[in-house]
Design a protein that fits this description.
This protein is an alpha+beta fold. It is 51% helix and 8% strand. The longest helix is centred in the N-terminal third of the chain and has 23 residues. It comes from Flavipsychrobacter stenotrophus.
């Protein structure tokens, strides 16, 4: 049973009792509905993602982590209005001013008590995944295969699902969701746009003449790609259809897109941390694991397991974050 538990990244109690809740049933539903979308490698990635969510929840419980929970109740049947109102309410909840441009998106959203991990998926059509886990709660997976600014939009989109659609238990988002008039996806897209690109911030710029340079500068400030920005500008009537068509040809070079979780690193260290990020190991998660280790809630071996590694690689990972194991000397 312990071997099965280790291999499948499941609590051993799940294999010997019907009392331990698991997300396996939810994942089975996902695969029955979208099985052709997931390769063997992607299925294993999702299994490890769930393991990371469960591990992080264990640490939060032991460390008495008090998340800044957010709840929003919709009114009426206009889904786009839900998205805009929910986004504005969340910005207020997080203490943002109407024109605040978000600096560290992932840190702020993780503090809501949502488990957020980024992993590379081989299917580039999948943007993200939301699961309301039976024990870990709200969990979001973002496809690290996308460019950094697209990931920013995806995480905001999945948070939208966590706000409005948690009763569905599981939701998979594809790259072109919303174009088929799916109201649930349109609402999540509207939420993401208004959360990342608040209209008040654009109004305060008092732009009288729009140019490619101004549009590009705004996209870099809001850390979004050109198309989501143009959609927001057009819906707010800041630009017209002719301008939208012209500016949609703008492309931002990838070397200008800074990952907020790697902003303070450079050179070889930045590349090493980027590879850890591909495995879902953010500095937020690693530091929580280290805190659990130093306070005696997890052993060195369990620490390594939580980082999807072994006891030999563990010190090398910690060194990147200026952390050290306690050998009692």
């Amino acid at each position: 049973m312990l071997i099965f538990s280790d291999y499948y990244k499941q609590d051993y109690v799940f294999f010997i009792s019907n009392q331990k809740l698991s997300a396996s049933e939810q994942i089975d539903i996902l695969y029955r509905k979208h099985g052709e979308s997931f390769s063997k490698e992607d299925r294993w990635t999702i299994q490890e993602f769930l393991f990371l969510c469960e591990s992080e929840q264990f640490l939060w419980d032991e460390l008495s982590f008090k998340p800044n929970r957010f709840n929003f109740t919709t009114s009426g049947t206009f889904f786009k209005a839900h998205g805009e109102q929910g986004a504005n309410a969340l910005r207020t909840h997080l203490g943002y001013r109407p024109n605040t441009i978000i600096k560290d998106l992932y840190y702020d959203l993780r503090n809501l008590g949502i488990h957020i991990f980024r992993r590379r998926l081989s299917n580039s059509d999948i943007s993200g995944l939301f699961i309301n886990h039976p024990t870990a709660g709200k969990c979001v997976l973002v496809n690290y295969n996308e460019d950094v600014f697209r990931q920013n939009f995806t995480i905001a989109h999945e948070i939208g699902h966590s706000v409005f659609d948690s009763d569905n238990e599981i939701n998979i988002s594809f790259l072109n969701d919303g174009k088929d008039n799916n109201l649930i996806e349109i609402r999540a897209n509207t939420f993401a746009s208004n959360f990342l690109i608040p209209k008040e911030a654009i109004k305060n710029l008092n732009v009288s003449i729009w140019t490619e340079e101004i549009v590009t500068t705004l996209a870099l400030q809001f850390k979004t790609n050109i198309l989501p920005l143009l959609i927001s500008l057009k819906e707010a009537k800041f630009i017209n259809q002719t301008q939208y068509t012209a500016y949609s040809k703008i492309r931002i070079p990838s070397n200008q897109k800074e990952d907020p979780e790697l902003a303070l690193s450079d050179g070889k260290l930045k590349e090493a941390k980027r590879k850890l990020m591909e495995r879902g190991l953010s500095s937020f998660y690693i530091n929580k694991c280290f805190e659990g280790y130093t306070k005696g809630y997890i052993s060195e071996r369990r620490f390594a397991e939580m980082l999807l590694t072994n006891e030999f690689e563990l010190p090398l990972i910690l060194e990147m974050f200026s952390l050290k194991l306690d050998y009692g000397n």
